[in-house]
């Protein structure tokens, strides 16, 4: 095995050790926590409550028409 192959293998082993040490939780617990977080922060979500007209940087610019 050449040195680049050895380096790749060492990096892979280090990555696998890191992934193996990550604490796991059940999907049902993660889903419940995510749902609770979403419900707690729904009032702050601009996609749900909208953006106030005066502070919306994406609103259509007002044009001035002189007749």
Polypeptide structure, described:
The chain is mainly α and 67 residues long. The protein has a domain at 3-44. Helix content is 54%, strand content 0%. It is built from three helices and no strands. The chain has helices spanning 3-20, 27-40, 46-49. It is elongated and about 80 Å long. The mean pLDDT is 87.
Outline the biggest β-sheet.
none
Any idea what the radius of gyration is?
A: 26 Å
Overall form: elongated
- Uncertain spans: none
Distance between the termini: 81 Å
Helix content: 40-55%
Number of strands: 0
Give the ordered list of helices and strands: HHH
State the secondary-structure class.
mainly alpha
Keywords: Cell membrane, Lipoprotein, Membrane, Methylation, Prenylation, Transducer
Protein name: Guanine nucleotide-binding protein subunit gamma
InterPro entries: G-protein_gamma (IPR001770), G-protein_gamma-like_dom (IPR015898), GGL_sf (IPR036284)
GO molecular function: G-protein beta-subunit binding
Summary?
It is found in: Cell membrane. The chain is mainly α.
Strand-helix topology:
Elements: H1 3-20, H2 27-40, H3 46-49
What are the main properties of this structure?
54% helix; 0% strand; 3 helices; mainly alpha; 67 residues; elongated
């Amino acid at each position: 095995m050449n040195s680049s192959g050895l380096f790749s293998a060492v990096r892979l082993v280090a990555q696998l050790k890191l992934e193996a040490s990550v604490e796991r939780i059940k999907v049902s617990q993660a889903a419940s926590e995510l749902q609770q977080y979403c419900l707690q922060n729904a009032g702050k979500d601009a996609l749900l409550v909208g953006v106030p007209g005066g502070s919306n940087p994406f609103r259509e610019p007002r044009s001035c028409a002189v007749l």
